[in-house]
User: What shape does this take?
Amino acid sequence: MTEHLSLTGRIDGKRDDLIALTQELVRIPTLNPPGDNYREVCEYLRARLEARGFSCELIRAHGTPGDSEKYPRWNIVARYEGKRAGDCVHFNSHTDVVEVGAGWTTDPFGGELKDGKIYGRGTCDMKGGLAASIIAVEAFIEQHPDFAGAIEISGTADEETGGYGGVAYLAEQGLYKNVQHVIIPEPLQKDRICLGHRGVWWAEIETHGEIAHGSMPFLGDCAVRHMGAVLHEMEESLFPALAQKTTSMPVVPLGARSSTMNINSLHGGQSEPEADFTGLPSACVPDYAKMIIDRRYLMEENKAEVEDEIRAVLEKVAGARENFRYELNEIWSVEPTMASKDAPVVTSVAKAIGDVLGKEAEYVVSPGTYDQKHIDRIGKLKNCIAYGPGLLELAHKPDEYVGVDDMLDSAKVMALVLVDLLLDPEQVTPAQ
Assistant: This one.
């Protein structure tokens, strides 16, 4: 306990540094799409971490979705070697943030500090978590420079658009082959351990018709009406069936413990005109309509079952409507993942939460996916969780913020995890 007080006190002493670091990260507008300023944020992190003894590598994810000469997908991996062999603990944070949106009362990239909160796009999701992990690691190394193993910190691209230019690419390059423990500081609240996430299956449904003059629709075949029939059948049979499916996964919020499906977009007929076009649309029966669906599924389901449910809806409509023609194409998918409560990183974080916060950790599962999917699926590493400061419901919202005290507490938890995983028992003594 003396050791814990010494290390956590060191982190309290870094409060101003933590605030400044978070503000500086937020002031680099790494908007995705399109992928602005990835190199700039990586260079900023490299300058800080190299000055503290880390070896740093900047890695561009050539050829991944979105990567171009205008918007290259840059990532940074920083590593600090211990004094002898041991496990490697890796902290992974994504550096990209989503669009600003309307409704802000603060500067989205100002990093304003007010009433113990730092405001700005990405404060909660997840530059506050990145800053907390850096402070935690720096404090641990200062107090225990003779630790065993290694510590890595990565700042990666594109999590908000699938992570293929970030963690997926790094996993494909073998980054996680020599890593034993991964913590992703996503904003799941400082007393929660996120074990994993639900599965996702995105698909595109197309209906086809025949174009004709809008004054004589009987001479054509309206693809939008066909799609309307699909929507009606979904409302009548699919959505009620999904609501009845429940899971043993501790998904939060409670509404996500059932299977869900979102209609992500819907379009039929003529394309929207350019913004400066002032004319009228032409009179045509639409011969094409497209819907994109976002289906989230549970550990108790599988992808084939999910696809079969959608195809059954389409086949039922086809049997009831003359000339109904459709196409169903998968866009992307990720299977559900969930670490065991007995995994080493889980038990270490749970112990640290008890020491810092004086309460038992809550175990949760995310309703949506994050980069754990790639560390599990490609990196073949199950000993991976999300743990970090911030409230998930603030992510992507106007006036997004992260609490300074929450970041400090999370940093203390992360630092004590390093004590548990990288120190021998005889090393757990106060710094002299």
User: Anything to note?
Assistant: The domain at 2-197+336-427 is CATH 3.40.630.10 (Aminopeptidase).
